[in-house]
Write a structure and sequence with these properties.
Layout: H1 3-31, H2 36-49, H3 59-83, H4 99-110, H5 120-123, H6 126-156, H7 166-191, E1 202-205, E2 211-214, H8 219-228, H9 249-273, H10 277-303, H11 307-311, H12 329-342, H13 357-368, H14 379-399, E3 404-405, E4 408-409, H15 412-438, H16 440-444, H17 450-465, H18 480-509, H19 526-542, H20 545-561
Antiparallel strand pairs: 1-2, 3-4
Length: about 550
């Protein structure tokens, strides 16, 4: 890895901390309703919703409300796509989206996955982009954040099974967190040159004398919540590699900061709410250490020449620039890839399919860990807390004590939910890959033979099951088979984790908080950070080792042998 790469990584982590610490204080206050102006605005809103801030729900009511809320959003987005041909704000005259693609997209954006099997600028009208996709970017991110807050309440409550009011939590997360941050980010992106208008496509004469249609639209506003909410769905098909969506190195750096801002800040919100800032720092340290290793690995492997090109006599002494934008270079492209797959974002500024075999394996592995290396907005924190419960359970078995975390005993009910939350995504990713490879319709979409074609399928199902949304490309996924298969993986991968997490929150909230004794396992020091990282790597990754051996590892050795 070059010195420029190291400098970029250090500056990025410094800037991230500088943003995350004050943002954590703001999030804690905003979601707790401590701002006087916000309370004045909220009062009539709660009356309209027919609820009150002091009315709390048990975990079943909270989960049911969240599922109902997301189901309605899914139906509305599906209908909007199917009817867009007859709706306004459609200057390009785009017709209805096909039923299978509309279903896949509706599930994708509601689950915070934002998988796109279509070209956005030639498929979705301005109205669908703004009223459908951008709105769900807000609401899906808010859904993840409120689940994390509900789980934190499970640790802080004392013998009270209620974990909050889902309607109030969703409103506050949207109005006082995601909306103001997105306005600020959108203004910053416009200042760096990102397009923002409602114009029809421009018909331009090229230097060669031909004509080209240049898509226009509300790009900056959607880009802001796409990054702030760790969504990833781009206005353009080329996503953050498009010069209108990511024009400069500064815009690229701001986008990377936006992706990790809320996930990093939520670690410190956790520490503040449980009354011990060291707990938040421990989670942040575990995430940061794994992220640094992954970022160094992908940037280092991309700085090395591709062995298959070397075998063809192609000079890559400067590193593997294939599939990368020259204005970003290898270091910024590699770092972006690590960030977007460590978080459940899915935005890309380079073609992951063109990475070296091992360089491309790093984004895949980051997703397969359950996207707990900062992870999505809310999803990363509650995912890491699931592994923290497993870590204290393993430690308890080792020393012969009933495991505790933050004064709450971890018993059979919690461990059943932990097991469900951890196992659902590998089951979907590996099972879905097997189905795709066995089915004729699945194999028909594979354009590259051998190990790389296998990696493309594995990457797609890993991305869908973990609600990331990035792709290796090279896979014809916009077909009824893949649209249906990936929709199932996205929906179950999202809500099949959320429901067990909320069940855990309810169980923990109903327990007494025990006093810390000399026999309690400290969960804020280096020893626990190392234990937590070990559990994440062993349990989160071990399921995928055979599949990785058949895909990127095999491709690496086959390429080296040529």
């Amino acid at each position: 890895m070059t010195s420029a790469g190291w400098l970029l990584l250090v500056v990025y982590l410094g800037a991230l901390l500088a943003i995350a610490l004050p943002l954590a204080r703001y999030i804690d206050a905003a979601l707790d309703g401590r701002f006087a102006l916000a309370r004045a605005i909220e009062a009539p809103l709660w009356r309209l919703l027919g609820t009150r801030a002091e009315v709390a729900m048990n975990w079943r009511g909270y989960a049911l409300g969240l599922l109902l809320f997301n189901a309605i959003g899914m139906l509305a987005l599906y209908a909007l796509q199917r009817l867009q041909g007859g709706l306004p704000l459609n200057p390009a005259g785009l017709g209805a989206v096909s039923p299978d693609s509309a279903l896949n997209t509706a599930v994708s954006f509601v689950t915070n996955t934002d998988w796109q099997g279509y070209a956005g600028e030639s498929t979705m009208s301005h109205l669908t982009q703004m009223l459908g996709l951008a709105v769900q970017n807000f609401l899906s991110a808010a859904s993840g954040i409120v689940v994390a807050i509900a789980l934190i309440r499970g640790f802080t409550q004392r013998s009270a099974p209620a974990i909050g009011n889902v309607w109030i939590d969703l409103a506050r997360a949207t109005l006082w967190l995601l909306l103001p941050l997105s306005v600020l980010a959108a203004l910053a992106f416009v200042a760096t040159g990102v397009v923002q208008n409602l114009a029809a496509p421009l018909d331009i004469a090229t230097l060669e004398g031909s004509r080209q249609s240049i898509a226009m639209g509300p790009v900056a506003s959607q880009l802001a919540i796409k990054m702030i909410g760790t969504n990833g769905g781009g206005f353009f098909n080329a996503n953050s590699a498009h010069p209108f969506e990511n024009p400069t190195a500064l815009a690229n750096f701001l986008q990377m900061l936006c992706i990790f801002a809320i996930p990093a800040a939520l670690c410190f919100v956790f520490g503040r709410r449980v009354g011990d800032a060291r707990q938040g720092w421990a989670l942040f340290a575990a995430m940061a250490l794994m992220f640094v290793v992954a970022a160094v690995a992908v940037m280092g492997w991309e700085q090395a020449p591709n062995a298959q090109f070397a075998a063809l006599g192609i000079d890559q002494s400067g590193g593997n620039l294939e599939g990368k934008e020259v204005r970003f270079g290898i270091a910024a492209s590699g770092l972006f890839a690590a960030i977007t797959t460590a978080a459940s974002c899915g935005a890309v500024n380079a073609m992951h399919d063109s990475f070296t075999a091992l360089g491309g394996a790093v984004p895949m592995v980051l997703m397969q860990l359950g996207e707990v290396v900062f992870g999505g907005a809310g999803a990363g924190l509650y995912g890491m807390l699931v592994f923290a419960l497993l870590a204290v359970f393993v430690a308890g078995l080792m020393i012969g004590r009933t495991p505790e975390y933050l004064g709450k005993k971890i018993e059979a009910q919690e461990m059943k939910m932990v097991s469900l939350a951890i196992l659902v995504t590998p089951l979907l990713a590996l099972g879905g890959t097997a189905v795709a490879l066995l089915a004729e319709a699945g194999r028909a979409g594979i354009l590259n033979p051998g190990a790389h074609g296998f990696s493309e399928v594995l990457y797609a199902l890993t991305s869908a099951a973990n609600n990331n949304g990035s792709a290796f490309a090279g896979l014809s996924a916009n077909t009824p088979f893949y649209n249906g298969l990936l929709a199932v993986a996205m929906a179950v991968g999202r809500f099949g984790v959320i429901v067990p997490v909320l069940a855990m929150a309810g169980s923990l909230a109903g327990k007494k908080r025990l006093a810390v004794t000399a026999g309690s396992l400290p969960t804020h020091g280096p020893l626990f950070v190392a234990l937590l990282i070990g559990v994440v790597l062993l349990v989160g990754l071990l399921n995928y080792v055979p599949a990785l051996a058949l895909g990127p590892v095999a491709e690496h050795f086959l390429g080296s042998a040529q």
